[in-house]
Amino acid sequence: MRTRFTEAFGVEHPIVQGGMMWVGRAELVAAVAESGALGFLTALTQPTPEDLVKEIARTRELTDKPFGVNLTILPSITPPPYAEYRQAIIESGIKIVETAGSNPVDHLPHLKDAGVKVVHKCTSVRHALKAERVGVDAVSIDGFECAGHPGEDDVPGLVLIPAATRQLQIPVIASGGIADARGLVAALALGADGINMGTRFMCTVESPVAHAVKEQIVANTERDTRLIFRTLHNTARVAANSISAEVVEIESRGAEFGDIAHLVAGARGRKVFEDGDLEAGIWTAGQSQGLIDDIPTVAELVDRMVTEAESIIEDRLRGFVGQGVRA
Ligand SMILES: Cc1cc2nc3c(=O)[nH]c(=O)nc-3n(C[C@H](O)[C@H](O)[C@H](O)COP(=O)(O)O)c2cc1C
User: Fold this and answer.
1) Beta strand residue intervals within 56-210, DSSP E
2) Cβ proximity of 220 and 284 under 8 Å
3) Top mutation candidate among 16, 17, 21 for ligand 1, by most atoms within 8 Å of CB
4) If you ran DSSP here, which 8-state letter would residue 317 be given?
5) Which domain of life is it from (predicted)?
6) In this structure, which residue's CA is closest to atom 7 in ligand 1?
7) Which residues of the chain have pLDDT under 70?
8) Residue 121 CB less than 6 A away from ligand 1
9) What is the reported pLDDT for 77?
10) Distant-in-sequence, close-in-space partners of 45: CB < 8 Å, separation ≥ 6
11) Which domains, from first to last, does the chain contain?
12) Is the CB of 298 under 6 A from ligand 1?
């Protein structure tokens, strides 16, 4: 399957594994690269820029195929040293970066000067157009279904992706709610040049989260997410559990961040992934949980998606326009 995205980014398949806090580590990203898809290490999962340099080196020991690094730039009271992480990425010779969280304009000149291609992930057409104007090479657009931060517009992918692709000139990667070949083919039909998945890649053998988390994703349905931080205009879609329920409940009483900070602390979420204690804190997952029934290796997942996508196009879709009508 060749698209503008596979051509421009030098990958075999139009499939991306987006940055994931605590999950986007060497083992997963190398497995994604080996499968012919494009994986992103998550810069801020590493405590310091020096640790990121080591993680990049560790990934290179596991694969010689291309991979990238996600740099998520979120508003914060004490921001991480973004410029230093960016420098670590550049000096490590990384050639593909996924930016997310806010406008990448401050980082772009540095990345471009170093010959880095940038995929900017955003959640609205207007932000995608702005990113195109400032010179990113592709945009990844998250629909409301997605895990993590869906923005505040609540527009699902079925509308958001074609609304974007009909206005943008650069390659578009559809993200959010995609977990199988049907989602891949649908995204291409909506005008996208590729897809991005988070939750689906988190539920693979190589994903470095506790097995209990993967089993819970398999058990969960499309209804098992909660939207937290709505009242703070910084919405996040996370897995349903007692903690996310408590956050939503406190928010409904008009709370401030200080009232929920102890529940949503990053260290607690990390404990879920490391110890498999599903009620230890908030953990990110999307509605695509309802489409996930197994824990395959990354290679099995990507092979299956590509093979099934080809057969959906060749058999099912061609059948609708050819001689016979097929179900
Ligand atoms: C556990 C987890 C952590 C995530 N952390 C980040 C992050 O740090 N930065 C980012 O840009 N996106 C993050 N995301 C979002 C994913 O990159 C991707 O955009 C999203 O998962 C797509 O929706 P899907 O889960 O329905 O495939 C995270 C997603 C998950 C599941």
Assistant:
1) 68-72, 96-100, 117-122, 138-142, 172-175, 194-197
2) no
3) 21
4) I
5) Bacteria
6) 20
7) 323-327
8) yes
9) 78
10) 21, 22, 23, 24, 25, 55
11) 4-209 (3.20.20.70), 211-287 (no CATH)
12) no
- Cα dihedral across residues 274, 37, 133, 167: positive or negative: negative
pLDDT tens for 212-263 read 999 999 999 999 999 999 999 999 999 999 999 999 999 999 989 999 999 9
Contact, 121 vs 196, CB < 8 A? Answer: yes
For residue 227, the one-letter residue type is L
- Return d(Cα 243, Cα 251) in angstroms, integer: 12
CA of 17 to the centre of ligand 1 (A): 9
- Ligand 1, atom 4, lies closest to the CA of 20
Q: How far is the CA of 213 from the centre of ligand 1 (A)?
A: 15
- Rounded Cα distance, 126 and 225, in Å: 26
265/257 Cα distance (integer angstroms): 11
pLDDT of residue 75: 75
Alpha carbon of residue 45 to chain centroid: 14
**Cα–Cα distances in angstroms (integers) from residue 86 to residues 98, 149, 175, in the given order:** 11, 22, 24
